[in-house]
Amino acid sequence: MPNLRCSVESCGYHKEDYCSAGRISVDGSQAYSPDVTSCNTYIHGSATNSSSLEPTPEMAVQCDAIKCEYNANHVCSASSIQISNQSYACDSSDDTLCASFSARQ
Q1: What percent of the chain has pLDDT over 70?
Q2: How many Å apart are CA 64 and CA 71, to the nearest integer?
Q3: Which helix (H) or strand (E) holds 105?
Q4: DSSP output for 44-101
């Protein structure tokens, strides 16, 4: 499982730069760069309302960014990934991205 860091503070699963969702899903079936990816697990809100799970640095990551070099049968094979905001205001999964996306050569 990848070591996952998340800097999307407006997500209900964000806790201490980690994720408490249990697993995440990255979208971007036609992505060619990080800004065309997104974290489908994102929910806008407070962590206290969204999950009773503890934040963890290691997490299963389902990945639909099929043009990413780390995509292995829709599972992320990177040793670590970073989920970030596309802009300061983050209200939906469209405002997030997988900063670790790397296009296949």
Answers
A1: 93
A2: 8
A3: none
A4: BS-HHHH--SPPBSB-EEEE--TTBTTBSSSBB--SEEEEEESSS---SGGGEEETT-
pLDDT band with cut points at 50, 70 and 90 for residue 1: confident
Structurally, how many domains does the chain consist of? 1
Query: pLDDT: is 48 or 18 the higher one?
Result: 18
Would you call 29 exposed, middle or buried from its count of C-beta atoms within 10 A (0-12, 13-18, 19+)? exposed
Whether 72 is in a domain gets the answer yes
| 19 within some domain | yes
User: What pLDDT is recorded for position 102?
Assistant: 97
pTM (2 d.p.)? 0.90
Residue 104 lies in a domain: no
- Could you tell me the residue range of the domain that residue 13 belongs to? 3-98
